[in-house]
Specification:
Blueprint: H1 3-19, E1 24-26, E2 37-40, H2 48-55, E3 62-68, E4 73-74, E5 81-87, E6 92-99, E7 104-105, E8 111-116, E9 124-128, E10 138-140, E11 152-157, E12 162-163, H3 166-185
Parallel strand pairs: 1-10
Antiparallel strand pairs: 2-9, 3-4, 3-11, 5-6, 6-10, 7-12, 8-9, 8-11
Helix pairs in contact: 1-3
Length: 187
Amino acid sequence: MNRVAKIIVLLVGFGLASVSQADLNLSPADCQIGVNCWTSDVNRQPDGDAIEQLVGTETNLFEQYKSEVGGADSGPFAGDYVTTYENEPTDPQDATIVWLEGDVIDCSEECYLTVKDGNHSPSLYVFDITGWDGMMSIVLTGFWPRGGAISNIAIWSGNDVRVPEPGSLALLGIGLLGFGMSRRRTR
């Protein structure tokens, strides 16, 4: 196998390997207060400042994606993700966030997931999901099982940029490599 073919096989393998991943599973039992999770009993929709203060960060956080039970998704990544709710349609205890395609939320630096109810204690969970690759599904289970319900979820990041998914980057790299090799042969 020639050198160019080996490089192409390596890049394609890297691109495919980066797409396979496991789900990120979160429940109230996974909440270690002050370590990977914070809670609040304030019954209002949080903004970036409120989350920054709760988790104790100096980073400006931006709402990247939000899903309301029975409502529309919002935020710059609303078309790239979808959330399904389970149990009761209007009072769900479980939810799954799935990346559809397109750009991914950059969680390489500070990144948080909020799960809100509002009528129960705590009314808000904030999970640190820094390091989440933006493509693996987030599975939420067992929130407010005794009469409460998830009203909305949101993903907050300090990176206010769109990141192309790795498979597209691998294809771009292969294309540039091929273009470079073809230019080199024509000389």
